[in-house]
Amino acid sequence: METEQEIIAMPRIGDKAPEFKAVTTQGNIHFPNDYKGDWVILFSHPADFTPVCTSEFITFASLEEKFLKANCKLVGLSIDGLYSHIAWLRSIKEKIEYKGMKNVEVKFPLIEDITMSVAKKYGMLQPNESSTKAVRAVFFVDPKGIIRAIIYYPLSLGRNFDELYRVVVALQAADKFEVATPADWNPGDDVIIGPAGSCGTAENRMQGKEDMECKDWYFCTRKLDKDTVLKKVLKK
Q1: pTM score
Q2: What is the spatial distance between Cα 114 and Cα 18, in angstroms, rounded to a whole number?
Q3: How far apart are CA 115 and CA 188, in angstroms?
Q4: CA angle in degrees (0–180, nearest 5) for 63-114-45
Q5: Which residues are known catalytic residues?
């Protein structure tokens, strides 16, 4: 018999994404192996044919091209069977309109996880919420298969998709420019140049010296214009 500790165990930021093979609405996948070289968002939802999840899938599907342009693929999961997934996604396309979005076809894979094996590997089951439904977990996995960020939402709270996109872009900007991004950062905002020994390198600090502004030894920023960021992050 599994213990509660086993059920809620979850990988951490910096860990390699747990490997699994699964059946999805787009065929079989081997995760994260099939996504080497790409960023990917692996996200769970509580159940098919539920209203909050439906609003999220319509939104994710409508924004898929935007995420793809930012080098990020989408993979969904719930503890439902493949035929339930197919029927639900068909219903979304044929019957549901949300915030002006309608006739929306979900093209990214939705994982069948009726055994809950993947959900357990990723700590998507939270017993105080539900032992049979996955919470709204979001794992950001980089091109090397490493988990870079994790966001968890309770069953009742729909996700903020502007924030999910912001995280994808900010993580890539931090990597490409060797900087950190401050509170509420968006492309075009100043970035953080870390003190020696923290984020950033000595070379990076010198490169940004001409437009670096320091309020104190530990708080230095420099300008990084929006076009420069987007040219590095977005696909042409």
Answers
A1: 0.89
A2: 18
A3: 45
A4: 30
A5: 53
CB 52 within 8 A of CB 143: no
3-state DSSP assignment of residue 123: coil
Q: What is the DSSP string of 43-72?
A: EE-S-TT-HHHHHHHHHHHHHHHHHHHTTE
Q: What CATH number belongs to 4-157?
A: 3.40.30.10
Per-residue pLDDT of the chain (236 residues; tens, 9 = 90+): 444 445 567 899 999 999 999 999 999 999 999 999 999 999 999 999 999 999 999 999 999 999 999 999 999 999 999 999 999 999 999 999 999 999 999 999 999 999 999 999 999 988 767 766 888 999 999 999 999 999 999 888 999 999 999 999 999 999 999 999 999 999 999 999 976 544 444 455 445 456 789 988 889 999 999 999 999 999 87
Instruction: Pinpoint the residues of the chain covered by CATH 3.40.30.10.
Output: 4-157
